[in-house]
Amino acid sequence: MNISQITEEDFKSFWPTLKLIIEAEETYAFDPQMSFEQAHHLWCGIPQVTYVAKEDDVILGSYYLKPNMAGPGSHVCNCGYMVTPAARGKGVARRLCEHSQDVAKELGYLAMQFNSVVSSNDIAVKLWQKLGYEIIGTIPQGFRHKKLGLVDSYIMYKQLNP
């Protein structure tokens, strides 16, 4: 698996996965009606860096990394990860998260925070915990899940340089 900074062509190939995930309304609080241009800006324009994982030129997943806050809070970063349906269960999310932590350290971040991990997304919650993230807060009924209705979401945090 090769992880590199995303290109315009990569994003075009990744767009169907992003669209599928946001339209499912199960893990991301993004507008399910978002256009390609809006999604590109959100995933590639706003973040400081965006990466894509590929194997034999096939997109497996992607992540973005950005400051979680500005000014005095800019030493904490935030990331978002998505894995293609065909690549799920193959360790792609773990590799992307490990890569993002290395990149975050190189960029001078001291910690990483996930602002809204949907509590019903057991696979992600357990993976992040295995990688050292702690649930530091719960937002009661903070996510409107398309199938389950209102569910809690978690704020998860990890110091990168303990």
Automatic annotation (TrEMBL):
CDD domains: NAT_SF (cd04301)
Ranges of residues in domain N-acetyltransferase: 1-161
InterPro entries: Acyl_CoA_acyltransferase, GNAT_dom, Mito_N-acetyltransferase
Gene3D superfamilies cross-referenced by the UniProt entry: 3.40.630.30
Molecular function as annotated in GO: acyltransferase activity, transferring groups other than amino-acyl groups
Keywords: Transferase
UniProt xrefs under PANTHER family: ACETYLTRANSFERASE, GNAT FAMILY, N-ACETYLTRANSFERASE ACA1
Protein name, UniProt field: GNAT family N-acetyltransferase
Organism field: Aliikangiella coralliicola
